[in-house]
Amino acid sequence: MSSQSTIDLSNLETYLKQTIGIVGPLSAEKFSHGQSNPTFLIIDLGSKDADSPYPDPFPNKLKKRYVVRKKPSGALISKTAHAVEREYRVLKALGDNIKELQIPVPKVYCLCEDDSVLGTPFYVMEYIHGRIFKDPALSELPPQEQTPEIKALYYNEMVRVLSRLHSVDYRSIGLSGFGKHGGYYNRQLAALSKVHDLQAATIKKSSENSNTPDHLSLAYTDGHDNGALPQFYILVNILKKSYCPDHISIAHGDYKLDNVIFHPTKPIILGILDWELSTIGNPLSDLANMIQYMTVDIPSEDSLVRLYCSLSNLEYPLQGWTYAKAFALLRNAVISHGIRARLSIGQASSSIAAFAATTGPK
């Protein structure tokens, strides 16, 4: 079994007894979804959760549940990737002010930067009972909700919550040093170029060592087996010469359907997950990222952008929108490229990493 799929329950139990007062013993199950940081459902088998939504006869579901999210084991391709420390910081800042801000995030309990506990830094947060939809067409909805009108409610809720997040005064909640003020896209293009080159070198080296599966050996490269994405530098140069208004806010960095938890029965978001790429950035990047994953026109892109503009007091048409969409495609191509690089060295977190490595933007 991969080291990314296991967790030292003995060390974790000792640590959590000391920090947050769990009862123990613990059980752990790795979430299959998610491509970057290994994430585990932890159940405190000796506890009882008075707030559990589960009725009898499900005794384990009456136990207190937590989520542990950690950096992958082994040498990381990029020093700036897998930033669980940043995730913890932004979640705590938003969570400490949740009554005022009304930004739905899971409560975080502790951050551990001592590698002797689980091998890499990790943090612990609450488990939120709800629904995570993986299909942008919302096929997981019950049959009676498979209508354009109801599906639109879920995406409209995502836009509502996103607009509210972008309205937060990040300085007032202690995030003034969380990212540079302005110049987000230029910084991101420089950072993506560095990350891409590191990933390309990793893919090339593993390919030479015959560690890369045959069906991935040339997939997602420029065809010359150097590990690079096709036309990557051309698009980077085009974006560098193009213009997008420099709006500034908290940027989630990977805001999309499967990174939010919906209420068990209602189109209401209970929690926003996966803040690894969050920073102080351009809010258009979040909106473009969310919309690019939609495979059906329900609701339409135009209606969602209009709603965002209305909620955010911005003029429509949204200036810089084409730029934002192009950048979102480039960034997610680099993310898929990174999955392929981690897969090539046995560091991929998800059980579906091979599929994800070849299905991003091209």
β-strand percent reads 5-15%
Strand order, sheet with most strands: 1-2-3-5-4
CATH class of the largest domain: Alpha Beta
Note the overall shape: globular
Q: Indicate how many domains the architecture comprises.
A: 2
Strand count: 9
> Which fold name corresponds to the CATH topology of the largest domain?
Aminoglycoside 3'-phosphotransferase, Chain: A, domain 2
Classify the secondary structure makeup into a structural class: alpha+beta
Domain Aminoglycoside phosphotransferase: 29-297
Protein name: Aminoglycoside phosphotransferase domain-containing protein
Pfam family, one: APH
Describe this structure in words.
This is Aminoglycoside phosphotransferase domain-containing protein. It comes from Smittium megazygosporum. Residues 29-297 form the Aminoglycoside phosphotransferase domain. The protein is of the alpha+beta class. The protein has two domains: 9-126, Phosphorylase Kinase, domain 1 (2-Layer Sandwich), CATH 3.30.200; 130-361, Aminoglycoside 3'-phosphotransferase, Chain: A, domain 2, CATH 3.90.1200. The chain contains eleven helices and nine strands. A hairpin with a 6-residue loop joins strand 7 (260-262) and strand 8. The longest helix is centred in the middle third of the chain and has 25 residues, at 184-208. The protein is globular, with a radius of gyration of 21 Å.
